[in-house]
Amino acid sequence: MAKRAAPEVNAGSMADIAFLLLIFFLVTTTIETDSGITRKLPPIDDEQEDPPILKERNIFVVLVNANGDLLVEDEIMEFKNLRQATIDFLDNGGGLGDEACDYCQGPRLTSSSDNPIKAVVSLQNDRKTQYGRYIAVQNELVAAYNVLRDREANRLYNIDFTEMEDAYNDPEFLGDKDKLKEKIGVIKNLFPQKLSEAEPI
Amino acid sequence: MSKFKKKDDGGTPAISTASLPDIVFMLLFFFMVVTVMRDNSLKVQNILPFADQVEKLDKKNLIMYIYAGKPSPRYQETFGTEARIQLNDKYASINDVQQFIKEERQSKREELRDKLTTALKVDKETNMGLVSDIKQELRKAEALKINYTTKQGEAGLNLE
């Protein structure tokens, strides 16, 4: 029997079908944003404890007003200088004796913080402050801590702190998790993140 | 007669579109891989702020989402332009937050309950007053782990 070539199937509509599917997916799905700044809220205490007494010089007051202007330690500050100012404050190491900080590289001013362990960053905002501004400031403060933690982690373990944290959170990490946790703990103790938020005025 | 017959010139030949489906399929697969199904239909405007010191949120099932922002344009006639909270698929008031957290907790397995994180997806133009109110409610509901969901980018972009 004579062999006949199979007739070609017309695939002209295939593109249309694919487009239809594509448009369906475009409409029903979103590109998920699933990263952000993680924070822990303070629990509500029933019994009103007296707040621990802090030295004035150990508190770094950041105020964001309704227009988004920054008032840092009673002085107006440009947003772009905030990160450096926070680093300078935390890393000052002005304490003496028990409060001395042997890993700080700051100028040891008597007007700034004693020790990163004592230092507290206090963030205050107005009820009318825009959320975007608030996040920007929050981000700079976290960045300042990360810069310092990275520095210490590099000095002690030759690795970035943020890298260590990423590795720790990675479920496919193959190394020794306990050891890594210990290292992260050491760095966190050197620069504990003490960020207090006042309720808005 | 000449040996070389001139080709009859019937206009330009049709361009083959056979690879068009392949290209579209490629796009389709790309979108299928990088996106996820929308589980809540957003009723509020939700342009997230930028930040670059972010941590990734894993374990999708352990996250409770709270949206806040101005109502989307098509709802503005009925609900005005004042920022509102959205829980699940509905607008909610600040008093509903505690109940919502409680319900979400109930629906999770017991050992996972203290690992729940609340992701705040707040529009960047919202006033902090509303956000503070939400935070206060979360403190009352003892949902202390929160995450300000942001887009990846320079924080300075928020100021423009």
From TrEMBL, chain A:
The keyword Repressor does not apply. Keywords: Cell membrane, Membrane, Protein transport, Transmembrane, Transmembrane helix, Transport. It is found in: Cell membrane. It is a single-pass membrane protein; Single-pass type II membrane protein. GO terms for biological process: protein transport. It holds the Pfam family ExbD. The keyword Cytoplasm does not apply. GO terms for cellular component: plasma membrane. GO terms for molecular function: transmembrane transporter activity. Signal peptide: none annotated. Belongs to the ExbD/TolR family. This is TonB-dependent biopolymer transport ExbD protein. The lineage of its organism: Bacteria, Pseudomonadati, Bacteroidota, Flavobacteriia, Flavobacteriales.
From TrEMBL, chain B:
The lineage of its organism: Bacteria, Pseudomonadati, Bacteroidota, Flavobacteriia, Flavobacteriales. PANTHER family: BIOPOLYMER TRANSPORT PROTEIN EXBD-RELATED (PTHR30558:SF3), EXBD MEMBRANE COMPONENT OF PMF-DRIVEN MACROMOLECULE IMPORT SYSTEM (PTHR30558). One of its GO terms (molecular function) is transmembrane transporter activity. The chain crosses the membrane at residues 20-37. It is a single-pass membrane protein; Single-pass type II membrane protein. This is TonB-dependent biopolymer transport ExbD protein. It is found in: Cell membrane. Keywords: Cell membrane, Membrane, Protein transport, Transmembrane, Transmembrane helix, Transport. It holds the Pfam family ExbD. One of its GO terms (biological process) is protein transport. Belongs to the ExbD/TolR family. The keyword Protein transport applies. GO terms for cellular component: plasma membrane.
